[in-house]
Design brief:
Oligomer: single chain
Number of strands: 9
Largest sheet: 6 strands, mixed
Helix content: under 10%
Radius of gyration: 14 Å
Strand content: over 45%
């Protein structure tokens, strides 16, 4: 079962979050030899999506960085979105490690 964590992102700003992925017993997920991917969509049925840039920053302790550039966030309509983070082992086993809502707040100041 995935951990639930909601995110707030300001439209037109760089977004970065360091997240520690954990097992159900609260121990870190060892991400050595894993790939990590994260997408968000307007709804579960939506065919269009955006991707976070995901970087594993400490594999043994399950730490990842989710990143979204200011240019990318500027191009997304403000509102509520759904996201998840999936991890895939070298053998192909895939699981959802994190999921939640994104609230994208509207940008006021524009260049």
């Amino acid at each position: 079962m995935a951990t639930v964590s909601n995110l707030v992102i300001d439209q037109g700003s760089d977004f970065s979050a360091i997240i520690s992925l954990r097992n159900q017993d609260a121990t870190p997920i060892d991400l050595t030899n894993y790939t990590v991917k994260s997408q968000f969509r307007k709804s579960y049925q939506s065919s269009s999506y955006k991707e976070f840039t995901v970087t594993v920053i400490d594999a043994q302790n399950g730490k990842i960085r989710l990143y979204l550039s200011a240019n990318t966030s500027s191009d997304i309509q403000p509102g509520r979105y759904l996201y998840d983070v999936e991890i895939t082992s070298a053998s192909g086993d895939r699981r959802r490690a994190l999921e939640g809502l994104i609230i994208l707040t509207p940008e006021i100041t524009r260049s």
